[in-house]
Structure formats: C-alpha cells, structure tokens
Amino acid sequence: xxxxxxxxxxxGLGISVATFFIGRMTAAKSAGQLDGEMKSDVKYIKSSxxxxxxxxxxxxxxxxxxxxxxxxxxxxxxxxxxxxxxxxNVDV
Length: 92
Description:
- Helix content is 98%, strand content 0%.
- It is mostly helical.
- The termini are far apart.
- The chain has one helix at residues 2-91.
- The protein has one helix and no strands.
C-alpha cells in the first residue's frame, strides 16, 4: 500500500511539473504573438506617418510656389497700376 501512495505522489508531482512547463511554453508563445502583432502595428503606423510627411512636404512646397507667384503678380499689378495712372494723367 505504501508503494501505491508513493507511486501516486510521484505521478502527481510529474504531472504538476509537466503542466507547469506546458503553461510556461503556452504563455511564452502568446507573449511572442502579442509582441509580433505590436511590432507589425508599429511598422504600419511608422509607414503611415512617413507617407503623411511626404504629402505635407509636397503641400508646403506647393504653398511656397503659390506664395512666390502671388508676390510676382503683386509686383506686376503695381507696375500696371502705375502705367494706368501715367496714362490717366497724360489724357487729362
């Protein structure tokens, strides 16, 4: 009878140890999957931010071009106003 109780104790201990290691492996796998998902999400976010930065750079460049064109047109308008004023003074 003592041998049976020792056998049951050893079997229980073996099952406990096996269950512990299986649990650790499962937890490590889950943590690895979560880590992989997070890395994938960060990579996607980084890619999206880079695309937005490129679009913003393009918008800024276009804004600068438009600003320069407006300044050029203001100068031409001022010159035309002066010519009109000269012509108006000659006719009077």
